[in-house]
Amino acid sequence: xxxxxxxxxxxxxxxxxxxxxxxxxxxxxxxxxxxxxxxxxxxxxxxxxxxxxxxxxxxxxxxxxxxxxxxxxxxxxxxxxxxxxxxxxxxxxxxxxxxxxxxxxxx
Length: 107
What we know:
Blueprint: E1 5-6, E2 21-24, E3 27-32, E4 35-40, E5 43-47, E6 61-62, E7 75-78, E8 81-86, E9 89-94, E10 97-103, E11 105-106
């Protein structure tokens, strides 16, 4: 089975490495530099939260309080775009507001 891998990754992810852990499709992914990494057979796979796992098609505006520029919220891949993790939910910047793209389980 073909999959995207993250090459040259000297950091070993663990529950104590300091990176945010997200429960994803029966395993744990680590948020690292705007990517989701999952250990697999001695390397790290690049993952994205699938669009089908959340609700990105609906415009569900939420009051966010920031413009997601240097705000400290972690960015994660979600389908063909990036979202930010805000209080366990995915926020997607959309014009003058954020859309709520659904929950993520931070473990």
